[in-house]
Structure prediction request, 437 residues.
Amino acid sequence: MNTRRDFIKNSAIGFGGLAFLETMPLEMIAANRKKVAASDKLNIALIGVKNQGYNNLRAFLKVNEVNLVGLCDIDDEQLARRKADVVKLGVANPIIYKDYRKMLENKDIDAVLVATPDHWHCLQLTDSLSAGKHVYVEKPVANSVGEAKTMIKATEASGKIVQVNQWQRSQQHFKDAVAFVHSGKLGTILNTKTWMYRGTDPLPIVANSPVPAGVDYKMWLGPAQMRDFNKNRFHYEFRWFWDYAGGLMCDWGVHLMDIMLWGMQVNEPKSVSATGGKRIFPTDARETPDYLHVTYDFGTFSNTWEHYMGIGAGQYGRGHGIAFIGTKGTLVVNRSGWEVIAENGRMESVPLALKSDVGLDLHAQNFVDVIKSGRKEDLACPIQAGATVAVNAHMGNTAYRTGEKITWDANKGLFDKKSANNLIKPIYHNGFNYPKF
Prediction:
């Protein structure tokens, strides 16, 4: 039996080399790239260059065929920083854009990486597809149930390749864990659990302030409603405000519930109920709940999502994870590895198998490979999978925000409660129109 101490010790040993690969120096990435013929190059551009956008770009620039053409952001400071970084990666002179619509006019661009806040994903994906580009889009794919459904329609109509950046699907230990679930060795799976205990500090309330120099704030807001600038709602912290994102449920929940949906081979629940609120940091600046417990009824089993913002000790000794609870044993998996805890006398336990690869790099390579081959069935995370888990996450938030147990009618595309239906489709502002497909 693996103890919590063994798990941490083994993880530290096993991940040393992987940490180096994931943070490989810029010069080394450039040195490892091999030249390819111009006809074999895939020209890409990135929208949203800070944080995860740049992580995605680093992964793509490890692929020899990838050629960076453009960088787009609403923040001059971030653009200047990233331009200097990509020069170290061997990119000669990327074109700089502050309006992604101008960037999409560049016919040399084959594929677009979308790494902006959630409230922009739907418009930027549909606009990119309309411009004839393939798209690699950040999770969650959308900031509402309606947008997620629209994005499926737009992708199917375009004929283009769309990969959602739920990169856990490219990691071998997640594939192995899901295969074990599908094998039936756990017996009848009665319940699943998904959770994230994110030990963190409160976000202090700050006053509104002038827009920073070099920032096109109106473009950052895009379809969201106009508000005075506040640094708590900008860059990374945007995810805690309903205008732009869905809190920890959509930040981490889509990653973890995606593995549950994949393992259980289901799409949408019959009903959803939730409880939670601002219980840990009741007076901090965040709008989204710091504690949330959601129950999804899929008919033959139920799933629970649970998150805490200020507590780090999670279930099964793991701060985040997915558990498949069967009559013969329980499989527990997270980004560190997976194992099976057997029910006595019903099966043998499976010892901990540690992570052994870099999922983001594999996910980027998969996207490039599928564009080259045209084999959409080989995509690690197609739009249908990304949209499905986004819908589940938004259903959980909808149940919380309405305070009601809700059921979903897939044929009508509606909930059974008017208050929930009011949250299906967002209202777009500032002259931006909801895409029609």
